[in-house]
Amino acid sequence: HYSEYLVTAINNPRSLSLDSFLLNHSFEYNLAALSSWVEFALEKFLCPEMKQVAWLSTAGLLMVIFGDCLRKAAMLTAGSNFNHIVQNEKSDTHTLVTSGVYAWFRHPSYVGWFYWSIGTQVLLCNPVCAVGYTLVSWRFFREHLEEEEITLIHFFGEEYLEYKKRVPSGLPFIRGVKVE
Hints:
Four Helix Bundle (Hemerythrin (Met), subunit A), protein C-terminal S-isoprenylcysteine carboxyl O-methyltransferase activity, about 60% helix
């Protein structure tokens, strides 16, 4: 959360606020965090060997690092175009970013957060929350991605539609808003 704030401070200081820490994201986010702590504590107490799977924790750590690095790369690449809140009005400085990590994925910050969040639960060897985080994160990003893409189509028109044809969303089984 500190790195989220720090990159926002460097990248887009005009949008910087305490909300940039993303600690007060939502009730659901706080519930997910609490659930992971409860699951970890219960399983550590009831079957401690479950929490000592080194290869699984290592895989989770790699997911966390990959996800966080991808998200921060997306924020830095987008520069002042990145904001934690989907913008409803196009400013004069808005540009469609298609280079760097945006050449790999249309929504690299979402992809990064998706794998980071699941990775935290794999790292902790929390099977229930790993499944829960996967399902809830997938649904959350499917909805937000579609909302954001409608805005991007409104802002950039054919330029975004061509980009959308060339570059995948990056999230499994999520193609984005359907355009006929």
